[in-house]
Design goal:
alpha+beta, 3 helices, globular
Length: 80
């Protein structure tokens, strides 16, 4: 599964670095390093809603507070 995280200037200011770090830790904690391809991507056109994440053709807004829930509800459930 490929996960794109916006690293454009707006999302960077809204915490994309923290979201990427959290995703890296979650992927590692669940042993999914070979199943998940975590990529940076520039503007995905969702600047107003925070850090944009895209996977399986769906777009989500993430931040430091909701990334773990998003991972479990949307990402992990689609891998296992």
């Amino acid at each position: 599964m490929k996960i794109n995280v916006c690293i454009g200037s707006s999302c960077h200011l809204k915490g994309s670095r923290l979201v990427v770090s959290a995703l890296q830790e979650l992927v590692k904690a669940h042993g999914l390093e070979t199943s998940v391809d975590l990529c940076g991507k520039f503007c995905m056109g969702n600047c107003q809603k925070g850090v944009s994440i895209e996977f399986n053709g769906k777009h989500f807004s993430a931040n430091e507070e909701n990334i773990e829930d998003l991972f479990h509800k949307e990402i992990l459930s689609n891998i296992k």
